[in-house]
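To assess whether the prediction recovers the assembly geometry, we first specified each molecular entity separately, as shown.
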Amino acid sequence: EVQLLESGGGLVQPGGSLRLSCEASGFSFNSYSMSWVRQAPGKGLEWVSIINTDGGITHYGDSVKVRFTISRDNSKNTVYLQMNSLRAEDTAVYYCARSLPSTQLFDFWGQGTLVTVSS
Amino acid sequence: EIVLTQSPATLSLSPGERATLSCRASQSISNYLAWYQQKPGQAPRLLIYGASNRATGIPARFSGSGSGTDFTLTISSLEPEDFAVYYCQLRNNWPLTFGGGTKVEIK
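The predicted structure of the complete assembly is given in tokenized form:
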């Protein structure tokens, strides 16, 4: 059974940092690109970042570029999102999602982890 | 950045009725469009890719059409489990973008 389990969310002050993790199981992790997609409370979906199968290529949404860093450890079947200089507008549920290389189609999603940026 | 505009924002229909959802791109995107369904408290689910191809396990009542800038998701006869929010998504162009969503609600 395919599973994506996000962790690391929580409450953080503006300007703070947080690292999210997404552990995968049930599929060949190193054959898939991995993304983070977020959803602010009551709002729509916003793509955040993507990393290719070996971690050598990454892309970011304009609103998180420079502040966020995506990485992966294929030996641990885990993708990470390091979030720095957090702002109130980063408050959202963060989902990890997989996609076949070069498709950017999210065919399986985790259940998400909530990040709240507030003083 | 290519912007995807979905309409209407809300669609009020009864079970058994036909639903027609629109997604318009700010410039031509060929057929690089996908559709997702999201129910409350759940992660999104891929429905359609390549504008018109159903993803694995998606019922035949869901269909997609369009190319260039105008795309449509059609649900031929609404089932109770189809009442949800639907998003279109651009691929093959950075940054990836989603439309603002269409909520299909029970009338």
